[in-house]
Amino acid sequence: MKIHHVVPHFAPERGGVETQVLGLAHYLVGKGHEVVVHTSERTLAGDELPPDSILDGIRIRRYRPVVQRGYYATLFRPRVEGADVAHLHGYGFMTNDWVARKIRGSIPMVYSLHHGVAQPAPTWGARVKRGFYDPLVGRKTLRRVDAIVPASGADRRWLEARGFPPNRIHVLPTGLDAEAFHPGSPERARERFRVDHYVVFLGRLQREKSPDHLLRAVARLGGDWAGSVVLVGPDGGERAALERLAGELNLRNRVVFTGEVDEATKRDLLAGAECLVLPSFYEAQGIVLAEAWAQGRPVIATAVGGIPEIVDRSQDGLLYPYGDIPALTTALRELLMDRSYAARMGGAGLRKAALTFTWERIARRFENLYESLVHR
């Protein structure tokens, strides 16, 4: 099959959506399919990339944006003629709205939501935008496509409540590459970042991810635990505030900002951590949980979005209500003070990740979905 993906950004950019599309594309190329990725010519930092390139057999076509007002508020006009199936990525992405109108009825379309549609808007401005976008544009786009792929049951329920046929909704989580299971080196992470015992946050440093909650919870542990907090990920606008907060909480020498790291370094940091903490306002799935499990680490996360569907409470992770700092502190104390309990949780998570979250399992289901649309 000729499978064309449309995504806001792609390699060499790194992020949740970019990683998922790359993993899926690798699998499809390995199965002999022709894969083309259509994406923006401009990086998030504003740099220009070449209009055409090939990465591991994946053809990348990049386009100069006609409109660029943010990650999703970007419009370029991809040429998907000749595709057997078009796979659109990211609800609210203006380019997907344009493509869905342009090729409806001529090429089967799959739409992966990624960050979800059930997510409550975190700010007043976001609520206003969703209030206009959903009924005027977003739901119309979703009705034009042949299959919708949310990452969680919460999104499925949102779609069904708005009249979308259940047989067009296919819940598929994000997958992990085989490399995610390669054992990281705790020694290398400790030497490079000068940390010993630590908990790790993995994600963009932005308000919706709420890394400040982790700092506040660690401060509440007081003298019970003297380890560090390692914040792994690019600055999404909150680093300066987090640095100030660390000083106010007397944690300045115990908070490490790594910035964006490569995959091998990420594995090292996860492998050496006591646990991963995901204090987000909302997550459609939370792929970083599976990444931590792949390194045998337990997780602590907010009970929001799709997270409760994948974390077995007290088996491979602990959940707490979003924003409840005392509850997060209690969860941290429970894991940090009982290493055998934490190790059992990490082992259970590793088994789950290997059985559930590999691309070999998940991408095969995407491949079957494409074939069902092409040959119907």
Q: Strands across the major sheet, in which order?
A: 3-4-2-1-7-8-9
Distance between the termini: 14 Å
Query: By helix and strand content, what is the structural category?
Result: alpha/beta
Order of helices and strands: EHEEEEEEHEHEHHEHEHEHEHEHEHHH
CATH 4th-level superfamily of the largest domain: Glycogen Phosphorylase B
Proportion of helical residues? 40-55%
Q: Could you report the average pLDDT, rounded to the nearest whole number? A: 94
Q: Oligomeric state of the chains?
A: single chain
Q: Helical stretch count?
A: 13
Could you tell me the CATH topology label of the largest domain. Rossmann fold
**Radius of gyration based on Cα positions:** 21 Å
Main beta sheet, described?
7 strands, mixed
- Weakly predicted, low-confidence segments: none
* Total domain units: 2
Beta-strand share of residues: 15-25%
Task: Please count the beta strands (DSSP E, at least 2 residues each).
Answer: 15
What is the 3D form? globular
User: What's the CATH architecture name of the largest domain?
Assistant: 3-Layer(aba) Sandwich
Query: Can you identify the CATH class of the largest domain?
Result: Alpha Beta
Topology:
Layout: E1 2-6, H1 16-30, E2 34-40, E3 52-55, E4 58-63, E5 67-68, E6 74-75, E7 85-89, H2 94-103, E8 109-112, H3 124-144, E9 147-149, H4 153-161, H5 186-193, E10 198-202, H6 211-221, E11 228-232, H7 239-248, E12 255-259, H8 263-272, E13 276-278, H9 287-294, E14 299-302, H10 307-310, E15 317-320, H11 325-336, H12 339-356, H13 359-374
Parallel strand pairs: 1-2, 1-7, 2-4, 7-8, 8-9, 10-11, 11-12, 13-14, 14-15
Antiparallel strand pairs: 3-4, 5-6
